[in-house]
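From the pipeline queue, job 12 of 40. The input is one protein chain; the requested action is below.

Action: predict structure.
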Amino acid sequence: MDLLEYQVKEWFGKIGIPVLPSQRIDHPTDLKRLKIRFPIVLKSQVHGAERAKAGGVRFAETTIDAIAAAQNIFSLPIWGELPEVVLAESQYDANQEFYLAVVLDTAVCRPVLLGCKEADIDWESAGEKMHHVVVEQEFSPFYARRLALKMGLQGTLMQSVSSVLEKMYHLFVQKDLDLVEINPLAVSANGQVMALNGKVRINERAIKRHPDLAEMAAKIISRHTSTEINGILGDWDGVKMHGKIGILGNGTGSVMATLDLVANAGGNPGVCLNLRHAFLTDTTPTTFRDRLETGLKILEADKGIQVILINFLGSIPQTEEVVKVIARVVQQDNSELESQVVRSNGSKSRQVQNFTPLVIRLAGSEFNAARKYLATLKTHSDALLVVENLDEAVAAAVRLAKPTANKK
């Protein structure tokens, strides 16, 4: 999970990495109550790169100029993402700019400190200019000073840069991160260092160990229901696509296979959730039943989903409880449908479809009783279809996801 710049700088400020006076702007009119002095720079808060080239970074000398610039930034999509926040920050005169990072090297399974005396890095030739130090044992300030010396720094500047590197490493460890990056770390004429921009990438599997991170992830998911969430969270246990068929499965392999079959059959896969693992935002233990209930709510709340395809293969825990969850959802949808009957002149004239059809594939002897029970439920003809063959289930889901179908 990648944080936005204003979130990164909040973390930097708390741990003691020098950052400029700044203010979060949620609406252009917030600039009328600006607490920092002009001139300022306004930065679009999006996850996409190259925002400066796209027009997402603008300078302002007065309040009127700042409001006009903010209005343009808020209406400017960068790589398809509109900013919900703009960062207002003091301007800074830099004599030098460095690149610093702490990254997890999966090849050696150790953190690595990176440093370069150029901020605008050409990554094709970065090997010639980038210096690195592998943290092979328990961290000490020696590692940070060693990298600063490799970069050719001396005296007070070496001490300042190594101090920033130490704090970056402590943040890296405290929050279970994959990457902490400062690009650039600016140096003023009097030798003062300042983190002008930063990037933090959180290890998705560590999110549930940190309640504050889980809360941030939950907000991202709630705000990006119609975008590619996986680009931000990057996890195969929950993938957002732009199709009409939501998929629930009990394993990564079964979810991926179902997605491929839906696509090959001419369907459009939507949100895909693997219920075998806890969701990224779960901070307390959950059962398979809990995750099924949550998954169904997520899919039913998505107005783009027209059909929910459930593929359970082998065995699942709490089979009876899981079946009850499915039955309750289907019967609730059925009762809502009946309540939506439109009457004209005292007689029923038409029905308004107000449910999401469920196509359920249950394969395995343990599901025999479940299939029989679900078959006895009284529902609308398209509300529930239970089959044992996956190809048949996929074909039914594709058939029900018609372009003309209306979603509640």
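Job complete. The two ends are 31 Å apart (CA to CA).
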